[in-house]
Write a structure and sequence with these properties.
It is found in: Secreted. This protein is about 45% helix and about 0% strand. The protein has about 375 residues and is mostly helical. It has a domain of about 220 residues: Peroxidase, domain 1. The chain has a two-stranded antiparallel sheet. α3 packs across α5 and α10 packs across α12.
Length: about 375
């Protein structure tokens, strides 16, 4: 290779590497610890686990809801429990009010219950961000995943703004290139994208999230041809065509995985290969050759996916966390930041003998100022001018 060609190649590689590095806007923070509360609140993880197990036993939708809540929190501004805030001190509309969240968020009351128990046991010790990380792990385990360790020591953020989401968060209509780009910006890989999508082996989506695939897909086809015809026909039975006045909250909800919708396993990947991916973003994983190879690997090996999923969740849990005193806070209530008590105005002592009491003098009435006749003349001139 000619020297000039070598130089050009090196410069191109350097520019490509620097560009890829420049768009990463998240940091995987080290410094969190397994057993962080072993001295300050030894029962912290057990308390969260008990609450989650109880809630999941009563309502199976809590498990996917908590995993989703954790991911939605960490993917935007890091794992700082900002998604739990009902209001932001700056007056911004909080993340939970975004169209990507809103009424679809499930598990908020579970976090409130765990926090309430921990506050009675260990006041102002366990952060809401850590409770959410523990709860997501416990939800996954309750749904069939083997147990894994969760590092802790996160502190809670003091801001939340729904304007942080648009353009920075995956949506059901995204394809692999855009999904990969968003994950890369958050310090995650394409493999993390495919692995974490496997959380769709539990939970479901409202009809309006995929209605574009079963009604009016294109000028040439009413139904997305990538869908298995029998599966598409079933979806059309469950989800009638949308009407302008339909209430999204009342829309039917369909399981992502029709085979084992309550168990966190690799059947999601087998369903994708059978052309039964519910969302466009699900089906995109088998349409792209790079991600399809991963889908096939996970469809063959449940244990491999379980291990990879735990590792990816641990990685997500370290995104842009707040560590140490002076960064964030430990909220007393997960929905509200801790506000400082109002400062009281100093009161002067009533005893007249204290030397620093300011003396009280009667005010003299102000004497009227005598104005010169010329002043009235000049003032009248300017008033007339205006």
């Amino acid at each position: 290779m000619e020297p000039l060609n070598k130089l050009v190649l090196c410069l191109c590689v350097a520019l490509a590497v620097s560009w890829r590095g420049a768009i990463v806007d998240a940091v995987i923070v080290d410094g969190l610890q397994v057993g962080f509360y072993s001295r300050t609140c030894p029962e912290a993880e057990n308390v969260v686990r008990d609450v989650v197990n109880s809630e999941v036993a009563a309502n199976r939708s809590i498990a996917p809801g908590l995993i989703r809540l954790f991911f939605h929190d960490c993917f935007i501004t890091g794992c700082d429990a900002s998604i739990l805030l009902d209001e932001s001190p700056s007056g911004d509309v909080p993340e939970k009010e975004s169209s990507a969240n809103g009424f679809t968020l499930i598990g908020l009351n579970t976090i409130d219950a765990a926090k309430s128990k921990l506050e009675s046991l260990c006041p102002r010790r366990v952060s809401c961000a850590d409770i959410l990380a523990f709860a997501a792990r416990d939800a996954a385990v309750a749904a069939g995943l083997p147990n894994y360790d969760v590092v802790a020591g996160r502190r809670d953020g003091e801001r939340s703004n729904m304007d942080d989401l648009p353009g920075n968060f995956p949506v059901p209509g995204h394809h692999v290139p855009r999904l990969t780009e968003l994950f890369f910006q958050r310090g995650l890989t394409q493999e993390d994208l495919v692995v974490l999508s496997g959380a769709h082996s539990i939970g479901g989506a409202h009809c309006f999230m995929f209605s574009n695939r079963i009604y009016g897909f294109s000028d040439a086809a009413d139904v997305d041809p990538a869908l298995d015809p029998a599966y598409a026909a079933r979806l059309r039975q469950l989800c009638p065509p949308r009407k302008p006045d339909d209430d999204p909250e009342r829309a039917p909800k369909i399981n992502f995985d029709a085979v084992s919708g309550d168990r966190l396993d690799n059947s999601y990947y087998a369903e994708l290969l059978a052309r039964r991916g519910l969302l466009t973003s699900d089906d995109a994983l088998v349409q792209d050759p790079q991600t399809r190879a991963m889908v096939e690997a996970f469809a063959r090996d449940d244990a491999l996916w379980h291990r990879k999923f735990a590792e990816a969740m641990q990685k997500v849990g370290k995104l842009d966390v707040l560590l140490g005193e002076g960064k964030g806070q430990v909220r007393k209530q997960c929905r509200l930041i801790n506000r400082p008590p109002p400062q009281q105005q100093p009161q002067w002592p009533a005893h007249p003998g204290f030397p620093w009491r300011p003396p009280q003098f009667p005010r003299r009435p102000r004497r009227p100022i005598r104005r010169h006749p010329v002043f009235d003349l000049i003032n009248g001139f300017f008033r007339g001018f205006h």
